[in-house]
Design brief:
- This protein has one domain: Rossmann fold (3-Layer(aba) Sandwich).
- The protein is of the alpha/beta class and 313 residues long.
- Helices cover 32% and strands 28% of the residues.
- It is globular and about 60 Å long.
- The mean pLDDT is 93.
């Protein structure tokens, strides 16, 4: 991992002990939320590997679409002086946008926002030469109180939710929640994957993605000999679809999370957060229903990925 040339700071609104207790509670419910896939070192390593894997087409589509759209975004938002990456991951997508503004002699201040301390460090290290300044905020995006801490950044802030991350934040509600912290001078960027009955599932059921999906369980000492990881396509009724995933125990298992010993019976399931996909018209309509005016609509060359640039209506 590259070493940061200059120090950066991370504001912590969500402590590690809170995450640990939340993880134990989630496993007890037999449902692992999206955020726990980016917490443990094994999960972060698997995520970074996935982002670099040619088989994971979504990462390539997101990056290529953003790179192709950057010149229009720079022109569209001449007043922007800050980029806030919501669910920034390892920072690859935010870096592209920062570089585009930097190349026009308008470098942005950067706020990296994520649940994972490790990913925040990766994002801030990756973007330090492209941003005017950088800082991280470690928080839970599902908390309205935490989200409020992101309000009033710079003169005009771009809030970027990239990498099909909108689905992890609840696409039916997140645009409206984000709007509440935005000023009329702020703007927003969303992207999402288009649902395709023939190819969507194949994009997830591959060895690299299976390693990433299994990583929260691997951090507990489980292996694929302990149970099977299953992916299931669940077409929706209103243009929002999901790739569901779940683990099925092949035998009775004992799992220790901190001081707590938990039991998983043979054939018992542990469900994991789904990956959300959209019908194209529904993706843009979700953003508009959240109170935004979509100023720019873009589509990847293969038609499988969408990008929306928007501002408060």
């Amino acid at each position: 991992m590259p070493i940061a040339k200059t120090p950066f700071s991370v504001q912590v609104l969500l402590r590690e002990d809170e995450i640990a207790s939340g993880f134990a509670a989630a496993f007890a419910r037999r449902f692992l939320d999206e955020k726990f896939f980016y917490w443990m070192p094994a999960s972060v390593s698997a995520w970074v590997e996935l982002m670099r894997a040619p088989a994971y087409r979504n990462a390539n589509r997101a990056l290529q679409l953003l790179a192709a759209s950057d010149p229009e975004l720079v022109t569209l938002w001449p007043q922007a002086d800050t980029l806030c990456g919501l669910g920034c991951g390892e920072g690859s997508k935010d870096k592209l946008l920062l570089q585009a503004f930097q190349q026009t002699d308008r470098p942005l201040a950067y706020t990296a926002v994520d649940f994972s301390q490790s990913l925040l460090e990766l994002a801030l290290t990756a973007t330090q030469e492209s941003a005017r300044s950088g800082r991280g905020i470690k928080l839970d995006m599902m908390s309205d109180d935490h989200l409020q801490a992101l309000a009033r950044q710079g003169r005009s802030c771009i809030f970027a939710t990239l990498g099909n991350t909108l689905g992890a934040f609840d696409p039916l509600r997140f645009p409206e929640r984000l709007l509440r912290i935005m000023r009329p001078v702020d703007c927003a960027l969303f992207d999402g994957e288009v649902f395709d009955r023939e190819s969507t599932l194949a994009g997830y059921d591959n060895p690299t993605n299976r390693r990433f999906a299994f990583s929260p369980l691997a951090s507990l000492g489980l292996t694929e000999q302990d149970g099977s990881l299953n992916f299931e396509l669940r077409p929706g009724q209103e243009g929002i679809h999901e790739v569901a995933k779940y683990f099925v125990a092949l035998r009775d298992l004992e799992v220790r999370i901190g001081p707590t010993l938990m039991h998983l019976k043979k054939d018992e399931k542990v469900f994991m957060s789904s990956s959300i996909k959209y019908d194209e018209p529904v993706f843009f309509a979700l953003i508009e229903r959240g109170g935004f005016q979509v100023e720019l609509r873009k589509k990847s060359a293969d038609g499988k990925f969408l990008l929306a640039a928007a501002r408060p209506r």
